[in-house]
Amino acid sequence: MLTTTLVFTFLSLLYTVSGQQVGSYQTETHPKLSWQTCTRSGCTTNSAGEVALDANWRWTHITGNYTNCYTGNTWNTTICTDGKTCASKCAVEGANYQSTYGISASGNALTLKFVTKGENTNIGSRVYLMASESRYQMFNLLNKEFTFDVDVSQLPCGLNGALYFVQMDADGGLGKSSGNKAGAKYGTGYCDSQCPRDIKYIDGEANVAGWQPSSNDTNAGTGNYGTCCSEMDIWEANSIATAYTPHPCKTTNDGGQQRCTGQQCNVPDRYGGLCDPDGCDFNSFRMGEKNFYGPGMTIDTKKKMTVVTQFITNNNSTSGTLTEIRRVYVQDGKVVQNSKTNFPGLLSPYDSITDKFCDDQKKVFQDATSFQKNGGLVQMGKGLSKGHVLVLSIWDDHTANMLWLDSNYPTNGDASKPGIARGTCSTSSGNPKDVEANSPNAQVIFSNIKFGDIGTTYTSR
């Protein structure tokens, strides 16, 4: 989730928190979601696929009773006197996916609704694709392509229907953290390149120390610790704008999950931590092509589309060095190549992410070179080779109102300057209070996920 000045701060249930013990009040039953693996011989359906809700959305209470360990945006400090004690006393519950969180799956399609009203009101969600009931599905994207269908027609300004990969542990940290008894089955172990500090449990301990409630989000806050890992944003999008962005990290295990504190978490220096928070993004509008993506445009966001992302290596093997990340679209049965950059100063018209593209883009946009300092595509590829977890989410942005994706950003910048304009949304759009009130029925539908050899997951014609 996931570029300039962005920090994950998700709304959840009024009484939702995460925890590491396992409760017994709600049976955890993952929605089934089939997907396909493809080779030159054809595609094979994995009908055993399922998704698990992230632990940050779940209700946590004292083990054996209904007393909350966390309410609103504050910890129950009577129970949670420190991180280890809190983890030992608090249980994370199973989820009622559809009625509580607006998450439903049918065949190969997953629908994520924005606002779900029940006994409490839930905003947004984040889920992970599972290999089994207790392990995340791991993907090595090198020399492969990843394809999916998506419907963003019901996503207005200020919302993000995101599909991306992060270098989480397959078991959700169960094996390396003795305080974690819940694991991947209950959606533990999240990390990303923003090194988010709003994650309530990290490495099996509650993020209690230094916790500060958010000033503009009644359900979120930040603690002393964050959780970092490399991140590949395949798809951050609404109906107005989209971007795909690699974010390399220099954490343990070539970008693997690592708890951070202080400057490691890019605080106070945004570019002095373990990860690249900005990434090297390709947003067609930001790259100068104003009529490529949007309602009624070349890629018409009023209709479902197929999104293909290819990870090309120097020797065309899964052990090679990542040299290019290429995007292709399919809509109405026609293959549409990605748009090309359209800015004076770029040495050539690029239509994919390469290290040369990133060098030229950062120079023309006068952006920080954090991507390069963190190893660029080479380091990103090292992380991808270790295996990444697929994340699907819908969210609004309490930090920057999603303007970094779909409007002029920074808002005081000159929109005629290369890199400032990212979409046609107003700079006054995206306020979460407005989005939640005016677009409660917003949703994103992801479907027809395919993973395989390059050129095998879609039809060219």
From TrEMBL:
Task: List the catalysed reactions.
Answer: Hydrolysis of (1->4)-beta-D-glucosidic linkages in cellulose and cellotetraose, releasing cellobiose from the non-reducing ends of the chains
Q: What is one GO biological process annotated to this record? A: cellulose catabolic process
This protein is called what?
A: Glucanase
User: Does the record bear Electron transport in its keywords?
Assistant: no
The reply to whether Hydrolase figures as a keyword in the UniProt entry is: yes
Annotated InterPro entries: ConA-like_dom_sf, Glyco_hydro_7, Glyco_hydro_7_sf
UniProt keyword annotations, A-Z: Carbohydrate metabolism, Cellulose degradation, Glycosidase, Hydrolase, Polysaccharide degradation, Signal
Q: Where are the transmembrane segments?
A: none
Signal peptide interval: 1-19
The EC designation for this entry is: 3.2.1.-
- Which Pfam family is one of those matched by this entry? Glyco_hydro_7
Among Gene3D superfamilies, the record links this protein to: Glycoside hydrolase, family 7, domain
Spell out the family assignment given in the record's similarity comment: Belongs to the glycosyl hydrolase 7 (cellulase C) family.
GO molecular-function annotation terms?
A: cellulose 1,4-beta-cellobiosidase activity
